Amino acid sequence: MPSSPAPMSASAPVAPAGPAPVLQAAPSVLAPAAAYEFLATLGAAKAKLSFQKTLFMGILAGVYVGFGALFAITVCGNIPGVVASNPGLAKLLFGMVFPVGLVITLCCGAELFTGNTMMVTAAVIEKRTSFGSLVRNWSASYLGNLIGSILIAVVVAGTGLLATNAMPTAMAVAKTSLPFSQAFIRGVLCNYLVCCAVWLASSSSTMSGKIMGAFLPVMAFATIGLEHSVANMFFLSIGILNGAPVTAMQALTCNLLPVTLGNIVGGAICMASVYGWVFGALGKPAPVVAKA
Predict the structure, then answer these.
(1) What is the pTM of this model?
(2) What's the CA gap between 101 and 197, in Å, rounded?
(3) Mean pLDDT score of the chain
(4) Greatest CA span in the chain, whole angstroms?
């Protein structure tokens, strides 16, 4: 007899396949609170670098900022007619070309003292690094920035490109003639804007966003005529090398000292501490300790 067919096993009906899950792309721009957390994390990473590596990367930053300063001097130092007849336009042109130095620094990677005053301070506020590490980072990056700025100034002087440009000597004299209080306040406002530039550029994950974020605040401070310690390391050095009647001690005491102090206030107080209170640990209530 023919065998009967095997009974078919019952199975649950197969549900129709749903739409494939959509992968959420990371935001191209961080929200302010997330940006603060990211900057504090960056500051902690910077604080972990050795003195030698921070020094070397600081030299790079000094060179990069020097390139931006050289660009600005080359443009505005060769249009004396515009400077005399339309100083506002000349200042705007200076501001528009100067930011290239910070853009290179942020995109290629280097240790810029002025930005570190914000980022490493934020890391200290959030207890992600120590005050001693902050001092090491600031010292190494500042020294490296100074070395790099002097090196690029010496190289530029050797090219002869600015031999007939009167702008470096005029800037060196003007910067060392500022009263201490004015240089200090200009330094505060300058690094307030520079750290805004670092904040904006770091908040973006795209190259165009980083460039635009760095460009606008730096263009503003350079156009206004505020004082940036690292840029001044180059301006003063090239001015002295071009024959400005300014000594190294005058450059240090009459400009770099008050401007550096102002830059520290702008980065560590106006940015890191303020946003540390708005978004970070400074604005959180202290934990209540239960009594025994």
Answers:
(1) 0.88
(2) 12
(3) 92
(4) 121
